Amino acid sequence: MATEDRALVHFDSECVSVYRARGGVLTLLKRERSAFAKHLAPGMLADKIGEFCDGLKGFAENLDRKRTRMYATGVFQQLSQPDAVSLVNSVYVDTGLYFNIVGPELERFYLKSATSASGSNAMMEGVIRQEFRNVVVCGSFQQSLGYIEATIARLRESGAVVLSPGSTKVKPETVGGDFVLFDYQDFLKNERDTWRHKYVHMDKFRQSDAVVVCNPGGIVGKGTVFELGFMSAISQRVIFTEEPVGVSVLFPCEIGLEV
Fold first, then answer.
1. CB within 8 A of 63, min separation 6: which ones?
2. Can you tell me the distance from the alpha carbon of 7 to that of 17, in angstroms, rounded to the nearest whole number?
3. CB 143 within 8 A of CB 221
4. Which DSSP category does 26 fall into?
5. pTM of whole model > 0.85?
6. Count of CB atoms within 10 A of residue 157's CB?
7. CA pair distance 40, 235, nearest whole angstrom
8. Strand, helix or coil at 128?
9. Angstrom distance (rounded) from CA 152 to CA 171
10. Which of 127, 52, 59 lies closest to 95 in space, CA to CA?
11. pLDDT in tens, 30-84
């Protein structure tokens, strides 16, 4: 695979499909029967997934979070929440990759997109056309507003709805302060009221397909680190725009918006 290629791997109940994505074109590279059973313990499932990933090195020497995306449907959708979290964590520890278990509703969206665009019944055809329905964008609104605005514009161009922030027009009175407010937000009642605004923003995480963290230069601010804890607690998919630096605890995530 060339350096501009992305490896997309789809695990379902009976097989694993490996694709190359380049310039919006999807090419099937490999399809292997590999039965996964719901009754298998998360550790055993993770071992099978890890073994398969080892075999992918024939297609790409560097399977990393920037160039590789994994998606899982079928039996993986039937796992209990604790087992799903355990599997995601185990795969991450073993491979460094995020094991994205796609929910049934999102899978239907991908399949509909694939059928509408090309008449295909391959879910991944839908993924490369529009990966997100709803997203939340995080980052330092004080330091990186222009970067965040460009990311939001890119997401909207792809068809995604940005649930939060609802606008990036900052209230002039809050520019340069410790807590930025946007034009759709009311003013703070007191210093404790910052929590209300923060919580309203974070509560949108539950409604999104992913949270996109804007971290130009890799830097992750203190406010974003706080939000990452909430994302982790609800097992939300997290995508950094750049490789994070200075994060004391590594956790399952992806790097870059390209698929």
1. 7, 53, 56, 57, 95, 97
2. 10
3. yes
4. E
5. yes
6. 8
7. 21
8. helix
9. 19
10. 52
11. 998 877 876 778 888 888 898 888 877 655 555 677 889 999 999 999 999 999 9
